[in-house]
Amino acid sequence: MIYTVTLNPSVDYITEVANFELGALNRTASDSKFPGGKGINVSRVMKRLGVESSALGFIGGFTGDYVKDFLTKENIDTSFITVKGDTRINIKLKTNVETEINGLGPSIANSEVEEFFKAFQKMEQQDIVVLAGSIPGTLPSTIYNEIISICRDKEIKVVADVSGDALKEIISEKPFLIKPNHHELGELFETEISSIDEALHYGRQLVNQGVENVIVSLAEKGALLITGNSSYIANVPKGKVLNSVGAGDSVVGGFLSAISKNHSIEDAFRIGVASGSATAFSLELCNKEKVEELLPQIKIEKEGEVK
Ligand SMILES: Nc1ncnc2c1ncn2[C@@H]1O[C@H](COP(=O)(O)OP(=O)(O)OP(=O)(O)O)[C@@H](O)[C@H]1O
Ligand SMILES: O=P(O)(O)OC[C@@]1(O)O[C@H](CO)[C@@H](O)[C@@H]1O
Description:
The protein is α/β, with parallel strands linked by helices. It has one domain: UDP-N-acetylmuramoyl-L-alanine:D-glutamate ligase (3-Layer(aba) Sandwich). Helix content is about 35%, strand content about 25%. Strands 5-4-1-8-9-10-11-12-13-14-15 form an 11-stranded mixed β-sheet, sandwiched between helices. The model has no long low-confidence stretch (mean pLDDT about 95). The site of adenosine-5'-triphosphate has 19 residues, from helix 8 and helix 9.
């Protein structure tokens, strides 16, 4: 089973305002709501691609009920711990420049954290744990390391889609896969990364430090997969970006869905990139038809050879 961990889920409120004016009353041209949080997005994409997962994390209040009910309607298994406060609402403002306001999220008590950790007792070696998204302020910043340490004892693969200090901490734990975007990778090395070559250089350093696989996404510029013995460079298809929220999570969801169907790592990478672009070109997360439509447009270059 694949378990996705979203410590701080959200209701994503995606709203379009034609010419947003600070300090004025703005009215929306369109709006929609979806359950959000990176791990939850990974679970939803995998479900659309025919792979089951179980979503773990903390939810609470009416917004938490919304997230849980939405996932249940999509037949996604959840084992959330219920907390007293409300799950946050994250605002995704589509205007001249895409702008996001992510909420703090509810407080989480120690007893609730203990309850959360019980889910890991039943996990087995063939399981995969996906750690995705930020750590809420009321949780110890070492919580991902604690989870990874349990997974290490059980020889469970860990996939991490996190940024900032949490990403820094995770590198030394040698996860199976990390997926930074080029900004997050640059932040790790205190530099700016703007080209595939630079991303390849720094991504390779992470593999040398023990991370098994690194996918670096560079939005419209393409994506890279660096493994222990090879590097793969993917182009991304051209299209109209309708909503980039969850595009990175879709790369992880697409990749893992293919890995769990025993595709080669190169094929899994292609499906991951197609899923990311399919989400970018959709109003919501990608669906299977859109992923399959884009797949033939993605060319993978392996050490100078185009396939
Ligand atoms: N303009 C674009 N055209 C085509 N594909 C895109 C575009 N932007 C994003 N994508 C797709 O989405 C994937 C992830 O994008 P990006 O590098 O922006 O990751 P991210 O910053 O983690 O995403 P997000 O935080 O928006 O979920 C890319 O690898 C690509 O497949
Ligand atoms: O605040 P975090 O945990 O870093 O990110 C949360 C979030 O922005 O990430 C997802 C898109 O990747 C959204 O569904 C969600 O609102």
